[in-house]
Amino acid sequence: MTSLFKKAGIVLLAALVIVQFLGPAKTNPPVEEGRTLAANLTTPPEIQTLLKRACADCHSHETAWPWYSHVAPASWFVINHVNDGRRHLNFSDWAKYTPKQASHKLEEIEDLVKRREMPLQSYLLLHSSHAQLSDQDIQTLSGWAKDARSVLDEEISREP
């Protein structure tokens, strides 16, 4: 019986070593400054700081990959989570959004932050020391998103 457990342990250990070399790749594509949120929309320094602190790891090409993002199978969850976040909203490639899309993204920011659905609770479990938004942060960020959306919506209404 002990021999069976030893063999199972060796197989399990070998499998854990092998999976470290499999799975999705971590990427931080180069950031083209002209395509960023700050380059395409009035974004005060206070807002840039809030976005970098609470949102950039999942919603930009400037992800700070934590130690556990290098260890499978946790790395698979983190990498897929970041890729999914970038697909939904990417501050490093804001220029890809039409004014209408950008307005919708700002509406989502305002709504999700107010409802405390962003940052995600799963992210806050390990990053609450810097990513947790205070009531004041939420008010500041959602107010900025609402104001920026109003400016965009006015521009959209003037388009032919």
List the topology elements.
Elements: H1 2-19, H2 37-40, H3 45-54, H4 56-59, H5 74-88, H6 99-114, H7 121-131, H8 135-158
Helix pairs in contact: 6-8
Description:
With 160 residues, this protein is mainly α. The chain has one domain. The chain is built from 8 helices and no strands.
* Inertia-based shape: elongated
Largest beta-sheet characterization: none
Global structural class = mainly alpha
Structure summary, number of beta strands: 0
Whole-number radius of gyration? 20 Å
Our estimate of the beta-strand percent is under 5%
Q: How many structural domains?
A: 1
Give the % helix: 55-70%
| Secondary-structure element order, N to C | HHHHHHHH
- Mean pLDDT across all amino acids: 90
Q: What is the number of helices?
A: 8
Distance between the termini: 79 Å
Low-confidence stretches: none
Descriptive labels:
160 residues, mainly alpha, elongated
